Amino acid sequence: MAYETLIVEIEDYTCLIRLNRPEALNALNSRLMGELAAAMTAADQNDKIRCIVITGSDKAFAAGADVKEMATRSFSDVFFDNLFGAEAEAIQRVRKPVVAAVAGYCLGGGCELAMMCDFIIAADTAKFGQPEINLGIVAGMGGTQRLTRFVGKSKSMDMHLTGRFMDAAEAERCGLVSRVFPAKSLIEETLKIAGKIAEKSMLTAMVVKEAVNRAQETTLAEGLLFERRMFHATFSTEDQKEGMAAFLEKRQPQFRDR
Ligand code: HXC
């Protein structure tokens, strides 16, 4: 499928989605968000794809929601339109692993989009921020909630109240990103990581994703019980038998997602 604001490539088992509005530093407009939700839903439903990577350009992952598109809107416009609400829900419904590969500006809705992914790999050029306060608005796609869960209240308040940008080293230190690579090798390294994930049992990977996400959604006791029951459930799979047999036979497992 051809998109106007995305470049979608399937390499081996990975679907690489590049945000592509270079004239606006990949600012998220309605077209881009609609296409992104559609592309991710399609990748989730495509049996050949085992991992999704979202990236931008060297200059920007995304510099936020498109200010030109929002500037003249009223409360009732954005309330009834529920600006990006449906698209964000579609992105969060994706059950396969999703990795964000971030270089350059990753601001506002861009940072919120990266945080909707399962984890973030950054280039050493990445700059994260929630500068909405400078526009007289508050984050609207999860920034105040997700950034606070990633980095804690103090740094989240600092980011949202001052609108300052955080570099890749600080983002790694505070747990916003999992790894940092030189910008020139960001995509290559992220595709290697996606390739590693693609080798696993997709069934188990999806269970892992659900279990880790529970940690953000529920109490410790509920999350521990969910994890324990999912641990028990994995013993009903062929992939558990194969994984453990392969270990004992000192060979690579051949998972079948069953
Ligand atoms: C629309 C944008 C944009 C944005 C950049 N551009 N960010 N257009 N919306 N969010 C456009 C500029 O207007 C300009 O177009 C071109 O991209 C290059 O940007 P410059 O500003 O000239 O580049 P530079 O001087 O390098 O500065 C880069 C920047 C700055 C620091 C990233 O562009 C910036 O501060 N952008 C806005 C960041 C922001 O406030 N994001 C939060 C948005 S609110 P022209 O045509 O002039 O050349 C948000 C809410 C989400 O995200 C809630 C969703 C529900």
UniProtKB/TrEMBL annotation:
E.C. no: 4.2.1.17
Keywords: Fatty acid metabolism, Lipid metabolism, Lyase
Catalysis performed (reactions): a (3S)-3-hydroxyacyl-CoA = a (2E)-enoyl-CoA + H2O; a 4-saturated-(3S)-3-hydroxyacyl-CoA = a (3E)-enoyl-CoA + H2O
Cross-referenced InterPro entries: ClpP/crotonase-like_dom_sf, Enoyl-CoA_hyd/isom_CS, Enoyl-CoA_hydra/iso, Enoyl-CoA_hydra_C
SUPFAM superfamilies (alphabetical): ClpP/crotonase (SSF52096)
GO MF annotations in UniProt: enoyl-CoA hydratase activity
PROSITE patterns in alphabetical order: ENOYL_COA_HYDRATASE (PS00166)
Organism domain of life: Bacteria
Gene Ontology BP, a term: fatty acid beta-oxidation
Top enzyme category: lyase
Keyword Lipid metabolism assigned: yes
Assigned protein family: Belongs to the enoyl-CoA hydratase/isomerase family.
Protein purpose: Could possibly oxidize fatty acids using specific components.
NCBIfam families per UniProt: PRK05862.1
The name this protein goes by in its record: enoyl-CoA hydratase
Organism per entry: Fuscovulum blasticum DSM 2131
